[in-house]
Write the structure tokens for this entry.
Amino acid sequence: MTEHLGPIVDPGSGAASPAVLACAATGIVPFIERFGGDIDGIFGNAGIAPDMAGCPTLRLRLASFCGLFEEAARRTGNDNFGLWFGNQFQPRDLGLWGYAAVTAATVGDALGTLVDLFSYHQESSIMALERGAGDLARLTYQITAPEIIERRQDAELSLGMFLNVVREGLGRAWSPEEVHFVHPRPLGWREHEAAFAAPVFFGQPCNALVFRPEVLDRPMPARDARMTDMMRTCLVALATQRPETISLADRVREAVRELLHEGYPTLDDISAHLRVAPSAIARALAERGVTYRVLVEDVRCALALAYLGQRHVPMTEIALLLGYSELSAFSRAFSRWTGQCPRAWRSAREPH
């Protein structure tokens, strides 16, 4: 099979699709088998061949990678599939990116290396190490590709992977002060607190590990400056071709998604968030043939369908996550989008 080292192009649009190195899926085949999943069915629905998972230099479409874990969770009946996959994932299985981190001098350098090299490992995503003036530091992670609606499994497996990088330096007993996730609280949320050995909060502005900053100075046991530099050089060399920059319209769509839980984001709110003039946003949306109001409705509708598919999430919580102050307002909007009220839509899809 040919390995893709440049950007992956969507044949339907001609645009570059965001990608992730396939090593992030190392070990998923036996993990699916452990839960009795249908390998061919899961990979087939995600549009990925099983032999692609784990290849250190092969690039997968990020949407297909996320879809693979969502499909695995559905078909194995393990709603926390991504959580436990990330919990057992070894940092060195992240290939060049993982080796560059675990051979850094300190825990802080390891996390800094992950952040610095993240764009070479995964596109249309952001990762940051924040050391604020307060008592706690934060390692944050977020996909920014607006077309990827279902991200829960990816968020949980990614924070689990990052947790294990820190534990390389501090030992398996170490745990963060808090863990934050953007998505609603799942049914088996107590498993999350067991996996991270920390309080876990859902419906937060970003996915994050929150911890005391003094751990950043602890040395990494496998520190090797020459190895770190070598891995960095190899990873950068793989990314000789870069995909197109994400459009302003897509940035607006993602900003809307990010701010919805605070209420309906006005155009001025988005303008301030992106530091882009409202007139520039309006022009970018007009080029797509869409107004700002319609874009917000599109984002709300897509998220509503995803959240309603999680039957344990209360309607009132979904309404709040979508920026509605009242359940009745959400119900009216959903009926306008689909011709059905939310409860009827959810009931029609319940297994009989």
User: Anything to note?
Assistant: Residues 1-15 have pLDDT under 50 and may be disordered. Residues 152-170 form the longest helix (19 residues). Strands lie at 8-9, 16-17, 19-21, 59-61, 125-131, 137-143, 178-180, 200-201, 207-211. The domain at 8-238 is CATH 3.90.1520 (H-NOX domain).
